[in-house]
């Protein structure tokens, strides 16, 4: 009987020990799981924060790149200026033309060859240079009929060249001189293929006569 009680108590002690051991293991496992869970959440939060910061950095760099790229874009303030090659002066062209003068007695026109220079392809500059050649006296004592007549403006459009001049009193001639002056101008200008008509203005206005003697056509048509 006594042996049976002792055996039963031993068995109960073993069961109790096993229960305590199992409980201790369960608690430790729960603690480990809780720790692991907390560590995972902390890691996730850290990763999220890192991703967030990384996103902000990329966004900032994107803005910086956009600003930088925008700053490198060509400016439109000057209407699209030409490049350095386009800004170089056009090549100068030299040609030989015929210019017309009168003799000292104003009896007849005299023809002479003159060299003029102008930017290649610039018809206005070419015609201005031709007019300037009329303002110089000839090489053999020929007299310029346009020496003191100031060219205010010159334009060309669709074959019509418009010359606006100012005539001072000392440049006004008699009827024969007026006729020769107009002839000298027309012969000089009409030698250019680009010129079909001449519209001659005085101080910006059409006038009936250049110097008060001969009727002035508007425009003067190339023969």
UniProtKB/TrEMBL annotation:
It comes from Paenibacillus phyllosphaerae. Keywords: Signal. Residues 50-65 have a biased composition (Low complexity). This is GerMN domain-containing protein. Residues 1-24 form the signal peptide. Residues 100-208 form the GerMN domain. InterPro entries: GerMN. PROSITE patterns: PROKAR_LIPOPROTEIN (PS51257). Residues 33-89 are annotated as: Disordered. Transmembrane segments: none annotated. It comes from the Bacteria. The keyword Magnesium does not apply. Residues 33-49, 66-84 have a biased composition (Polar residues).
């Amino acid at each position: 009987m006594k042996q049976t009680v002792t055996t039963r108590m031993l068995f109960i002690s073993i069961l109790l020990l096993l229960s305590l051991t199992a409980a201790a293991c369960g608690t430790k496992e729960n603690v480990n799981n809780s720790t692991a869970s907390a560590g995972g959440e902390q890691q996730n939060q850290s990763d999220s924060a890192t991703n967030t910061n990384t996103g902000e950095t990329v966004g900032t760099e994107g803005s910086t790149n956009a600003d930088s790229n925008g700053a490198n874009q060509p400016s439109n303030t000057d209407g699209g200026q030409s490049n350095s090659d386009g800004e170089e002066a056009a090549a100068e062209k030299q040609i030989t033309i015929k210019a017309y003068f009168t003799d000292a007695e104003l009896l007849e026109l005299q023809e002479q060859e003159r060299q003029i220079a102008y930017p290649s392809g610039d018809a206005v500059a070419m015609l201005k240079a031709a007019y300037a050649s009329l303002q110089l006296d000839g090489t053999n004592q020929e007299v310029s009929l346009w020496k003191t007549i100031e060219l205010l403006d010159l334009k060309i459009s669709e074959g019509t060249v418009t010359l606006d001049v100012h005539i001072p009193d000392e440049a006004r001639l008699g009827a024969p001189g007026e006729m020769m002056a107009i002839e000298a101008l027309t012969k000089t200008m009409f030698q250019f293929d680009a010129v079909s008509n001449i519209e001659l203005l005085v101080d910006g206005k059409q006038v009936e006569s250049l110097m008060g003697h001969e009727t002035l056509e508007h425009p003067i048509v190339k023969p």
